[in-house]
């Protein structure tokens, strides 16, 4: 079942990426347009996007890196800050979480700011809202709640989330209005064109998909500014 879920996720992400690419291409107006023409145009658009991303990363307000409403992995005084766009219903986000935890533990120079997204399932928003309320109201229980949510079924069910709330005695934080931090994170993800999770904004580079601790650390070291 786990392999089937991962396969379905991969197919879903490939389809979404493909549709996003099609949406970014010009309308084909001539029959003489070839695959090479489309590939060249896609490559040109990618370069334009990367430059746009670089400019956005350089001009983002410091508040997006140091919003106390965003959960953080690592020390508050770390010199390097990485934004992590993640989703509780993403199987790869679940795999990369222990890597983030380990890198932050072994290397106190970096902190990971979690920007929860809601793209994978209807329950993603419920889970993210719940987690953010726990972070704000009962921070000491946040990691327990986060880890439990990341170990649930795909997709998470309301019953599972309710059970996690009862087990951690945070059930009173499950329902409520959408936290402003979640709306801000989703908006930022859309602005930076985060089409897949996990994605990480490291300096002016966007890293998407799975990685190992050594590669992640090496990429972070290329951008010492926070």
Task: Tell me what the structure shows.
The chain is α+β, with helices and mostly antiparallel strands and 226 residues long. It is 54% helix and 11% strand. The chain is built from eight helices and five strands. It has helices at residues 2-24, 35-59, 91-106, 122-137, 142-150, 158-168, 180-191, 213-221, and strands spanning 72-73, 80-86, 110-116, 199-202, 205-208. Strands 1-3-2-4-5 form a five-stranded mixed β-sheet. β2, α3 and β3 (110-116) form a beta-alpha-beta unit. The protein is globular and about 55 Å long. It starts with a helix and ends in a 5-residue tail after the last helix. 31% of the residues are buried. Residues 1-15 and 17-29 have low confidence and may be disordered.
Core attributes:
226 residues; disordered N terminus
Structural class: alpha+beta
Helix count from the secondary structure assignment = 8
Radius of gyration: 19 Å
Separation of termini?
40 Å
Helix content: 40-55%
- Name the strands of the widest sheet in spatial order: 1-3-2-4-5
Report the sheet-strand fraction: 5-15%
Give the overall silhouette.
globular
Major sheet, described briefly? 5 strands, mixed
Report low-confidence residues grouped into runs of 5 or more. 1-15, 17-29
Could you tell me the mean pLDDT? Answer: 83
Topology order in helix (H) and strand (E) letters:
HHEEHEHHHHEEH
Number of strands: 5
Blueprint of the fold:
Layout: H1 2-24, H2 35-59, E1 72-73, E2 80-86, H3 91-106, E3 110-116, H4 122-137, H5 142-150, H6 158-168, H7 180-191, E4 199-202, E5 205-208, H8 213-221
Parallel strand pairs: 2-3
Antiparallel strand pairs: 1-3, 2-4, 4-5
Helix pairs in contact: 4-5, 5-6
């Amino acid at each position: 079942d786990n392999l089937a879920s991962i396969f379905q996720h991969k197919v879903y992400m490939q389809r979404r990426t493909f549709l996003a690419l099609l949406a970014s291409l010009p309308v084909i107006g001539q029959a003489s347009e070839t695959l090479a023409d489309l590939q060249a145009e896609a490559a040109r658009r990618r370069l334009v996007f990367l430059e746009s991303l670089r400019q956005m990363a350089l001009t983002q307000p410091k508040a997006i890196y140091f919003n106390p409403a965003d959960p953080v992995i690592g020390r508050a005084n770390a010199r390097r800050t990485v934004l992590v766009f993640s989703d509780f219903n993403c199987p790869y986000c679940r795999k990369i979480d222990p890597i983030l935890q380990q890198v932050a533990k072994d290397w106190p120079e970096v902190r990971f700011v979690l920007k929860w997204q809601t793209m994978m399932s209807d329950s993603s928003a419920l889970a993210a809202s719940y987690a953010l309320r726990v972070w704000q109201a009962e921070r000491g229980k946040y990691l327990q709640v986060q880890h439990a949510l990341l170990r649930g079924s795909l997709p998470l069910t309301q019953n599972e989330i309710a059970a996690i709330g009862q087990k951690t005695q945070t059930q009173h934080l499950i329902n409520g209005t959408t936290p402003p931090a979640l709306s801000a994170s989703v908006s930022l993800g859309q602005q930076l064109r985060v089409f897949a999770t996990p994605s990480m904004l490291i300096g002016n580079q966007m890293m998407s998909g799975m990685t190992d601790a050594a590669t992640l650390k090496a990429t972070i070291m290329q951008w010492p500014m926070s």
